[in-house]
């Protein structure tokens, strides 16, 4: 596979298996505003903006801010933090990034502080990643290119778009990369997505450096 100068990664479902944690967070978050959440929607809702999921479940607009604030708190509940698990290759892969001084960053719809707290649970040094771009650092959500473009700017380096790749586990991640004009890699552990000339499909993180 082509080698890039900057590797940007989605977090949830890409670097770590956070689906059990998100199932818990969505369940208690929606319950807080009187909505029963069906766990079968966890992966789908993890890949779309929180506002889009809220609309799909016909959430009361007057309770939106209360819902968002509670979700942000629930992400840091001990039960949510403890529910995260690594994929088979996750920990060794991130060690490889750090040991080989590969320029990397995390671009996520999650909170930067939460991402760092989860990394600490698994003893992953925070300097493994040069850039952390979370949902409080940008205004427009994936598939808009803003999160990726802001991450490149935050690097402080003059990267050309063709030297940057964004790796994610959902179509919004791939579209975000495509819209930003950078390389798009879709990690497809469960064979969910079709092949496309617009992105490269891989089954695990290690394929990035084969």
Describe this structure in words.
By secondary structure, this protein is α/β, with parallel strands linked by helices. The chain folds into two domains: 6-17 and 84-209, Rossmann fold; 19-82. Helices cover 39% and strands 13% of the residues. It contains nine helices and eight strands. The strands form two sheets. Strands 5-4-1-6-7-8 form a six-stranded parallel β-sheet, with helices on one face. A two-stranded antiparallel ribbon has the order 2-3. Helix 1 (19-32) packs antiparallel against helix 4. It starts with 5 loop residues before the first strand and ends in an 8-residue tail after the last strand.
The main sheet comes to:
6 strands, parallel
Strand adjacency order, main sheet: 5-4-1-6-7-8
Distance between the termini: 6 Å
What CATH first level of the largest domain would be assigned?
A: Alpha Beta
Which architecture of the largest domain would the CATH scheme give at its second level? 3-Layer(aba) Sandwich
What Rg do the Cα atoms give?
Answer: 17 Å
Question: How would you summarize the topology of this molecule?
Answer:
Elements: E1 6-9, E2 16-17, H1 19-32, H2 42-46, H3 50-56, H4 64-74, H5 78-82, E3 85-86, H6 90-99, E4 104-107, H7 112-121, E5 131-133, H8 146-154, E6 164-168, H9 171-180, E7 183-187, E8 200-202
Helix pairs in contact: 1-4
């Amino acid at each position: 596979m082509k080698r890039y100068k900057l590797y940007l990664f989605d977090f949830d479902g890409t670097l770590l298996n956070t689906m059990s944690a998100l199932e818990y967070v969505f369940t208690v978050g929606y319950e807080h505003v009187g909505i029963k959440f069906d766990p079968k929607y966890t992966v789908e809702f993890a890949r779309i903006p929180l506002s889009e999921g809220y609309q799909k479940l016909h959430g009361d607009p007057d309770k939106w801010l209360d819902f968002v604030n509670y979700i942000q708190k629930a992400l840091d509940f001990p039960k949510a933090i403890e529910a995260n698990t690594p994929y088979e290759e996750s920990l060794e892969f991130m060690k490889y990034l750090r040991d080989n001084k590969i320029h990397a960053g995390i671009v996520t719809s999650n909170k930067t502080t939460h991402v760092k707290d989860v990394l600490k649970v698994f003893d992953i040094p925070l300097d493994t990643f040069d850039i952390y771009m979370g949902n409080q650092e940008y205004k427009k959500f994936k598939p808009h290119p803003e999160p990726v473009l802001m991450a490149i700017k935050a690097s402080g380096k003059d990267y050309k778009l063709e030297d940057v790749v964004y790796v994610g586990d959902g179509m919004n991640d791939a579209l975000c990369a495509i819209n930003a004009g950078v390389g798009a890699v879709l990690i497809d552990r469960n064979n969910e997505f079709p092949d496309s000339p617009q992105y490269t499909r891989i089954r695990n993180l290690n394929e990035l450096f084969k």
